[in-house]
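Before the break, one more example. Copy the sequence into your notebook; we will annotate it together after we see the structure.
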Amino acid sequence: MKIISPIKLIVSILATELAGIVGSFFTVSSVDSWYQFLIKPVGNPPSWVFGPVWTILYALMGISFYLIWTSKAEKITKQTAMIVFGGQLVLNAFWSIIFFGARNPFYALIDIVLMWLAIIITMLWFRKISRPAFLLLVPYIIWVTYAAYLNLGILMLN
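Here is what the structure looks like once it is written out:
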């Protein structure tokens, strides 16, 4: 039976939530300004939905990362998976900076496509190590696919 390391679990979750916090600095100030005047695509949820959804997704990502970090996988496999995860997390944080901070849906779309690809690559690496870690990322890729649709829709409509 695997022993849970509470410190590593907390660090894993906090590190992923930090990406969301960085992005939120740019998001919060924009939601009530220029963003509210954009034409949104069909299916765009109310603004209040994004905060709780992302908080949950970051927590799931953190738990997923923890499962990889504490796995008994071969060192190079585990390190590669963790580096790829870090890369997609950086792209994740940059999306809010680009979309909301720079107010640039075009470059944000490029970022989210790269992020989507990085998430898929992360999932493939995680699947080699831990099926639960892989499965915990499924809601994330679904949401990012939806977010890419919203980003594209905003770009096309405005």
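The chain has six helices and no strands. The longest helix spans residues 75-101. Try to locate both features in your own notes.
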